[in-house]
Design brief:
The protein has helices at 2-21, 431-434, and strands spanning 24-30, 35-40, 47-51, 57-61, 66-69, 78-84, 87-88, 92-94, 100-106, 116-124, 130-136, 149-156, 161-162, 166-170, 182-186, 193-199, 202-208, 216-220, 227-235, 238-245, 248-255, 263-266, 273-275, 283-285, 291-299, 305-311, 318-321, 330-336, 339-345, 357-362, 372-373, 383-390, 396-401, 415-419, 426-427, 445-449, 455-461, 470-475. It has 477 residues and is mainly beta. It has two domains: 20-94, Immunoglobulins (Immunoglobulin-like, Sandwich); 100-475, YVTN repeat-like/Quinoprotein amine dehydrogenase (Methylamine Dehydrogenase, Chain H, 7 Propeller), CATH 2.130.10.10. Strands 3, 4, 6, 7 and 8 form a five-stranded antiparallel β-sheet that branches. Strand 16 and strand 17 (202-208) form a beta hairpin. The longest helix has 20 residues, at 2-21. 44% of the residues are buried.
Length: 477
Amino acid sequence: MYKFSLLSGVCVIAIALHAANAQQLSVNSATAKSVELTWTGAAGTAAIERSSGKTFQKIGPAAGSSYTDTTIDPFGTYKYRINTAGKFSNEVTVGPPPMGVSSAAPAPKGSDPAKYGPATATNLDVNGDPLIAFEWVDSNGDGDQADTEIRFVAWDRASYQWKQPVRVVTTGPLADQGVNPMAIACDRSNGNLAILTTAGENLVYATSTDNGVTWKTAPVSNSNGTPRAVSMIVASGQAYAAVNAETGATYYTGSAADPSSFKSQAVPAGAGWKIQNQSNIPMTVDQSGNIALAFYVDQQDADNHRYVFWRAGSSDPTVIAANAPADSPDVALTFGGNKFGVLLNATLDSNDTDHGVWYTQSTDGSSWSKPVRLPIDGPRSTNPPLGIAIASKGNLTAAFGSNSGSAGATCNSPAVSRSTDGANWTTCGIGQAAGADFNPQPPTIHVIEAPNDKAYVVWQEQNDSKYNPGVLVWHEK
């Protein structure tokens, strides 16, 4: 009986010690402004500790059961733990996506990687983290593209991982050959999200007021035949969109919450010119909130081609690059550092047809610099798809395809080129630093600049590597 009591006492003591040490810390919410922590099992002398590197430091007492940390860098990555007299809880990590490459949406096992993400669109949420919309062709794998759908994925700072992709809308086949058939936008005044996409001969507008958990869809009027390429910006409750369709391009404006309010006007190509319908029509906004577009036009009665720039509300567009023939015309437009930047595909040098990607910039949208070719770090081509972004201080990041060459690129792929002035560029791909062999010719690629001047590159990857096929994201260090 005595032995039984002693053993029982030992068991009771062990259970009590375990309960005292079972400090469980969790993240209730995490934004660019604050981190809200909750926990259980901490004693009165416990302290909350935080680390942004290797060393933890006390930031507050853990006498209660919650704590909100407002002393954070909006783009810092932090680890937290509870310390009770040298006994530590679990650690939690919060912050934006990690530096380097991560998989935002891995292709499901058994699916065809080429059909998972061949078209994508990206933007930034209210925290400055990437939002991604992407296409899943024939999602049930029965050989019929009628069930092709748009999915949405975003970063979760609280769980420090990409959320599970959410189905937004079933569209059927998209016109995604060399163009962007969807666009995604975030209204940073309220956090509401919007996606505009083609759907056969129609347009579909989807909105979400709960961070992309649920979506509401509605049609958008279209009178120019089959829509192909779209772009969109949403700000302060207003939506601005451009659609390049079979018989012309249209500029839309209206309430972001009500697509039936959208008003439309034709995008002018200029007298004697016609907008090439199988090409992108990117959109950007300058520091004054003015909307601008870039696009490719063909001469109606002669064999000439050019890229042009158009400010919404103006009459005729401004020429960006004249005499710019292109088998696969493509253009990317951005604004940052008080200048517009355009990346375009054309044969501007008849003696060098391998280098087809060129960059030009403007401070006013009227006068454009002489285009300069972007280099590749190997005997390869430069070609679409294209992505370009400018940081607030003027540094540039461009990304593009490289579909042919006599050897591989030194830095692997996809190709990323950097410049501080727009005139001198250095190209080095993502794959080598990531320790992976990526596809040199992704079907889709985008560059976007976060408010802390760190770029993101988003692309569809079909090669099998440690990151798996799917929609991948590279975050600049």
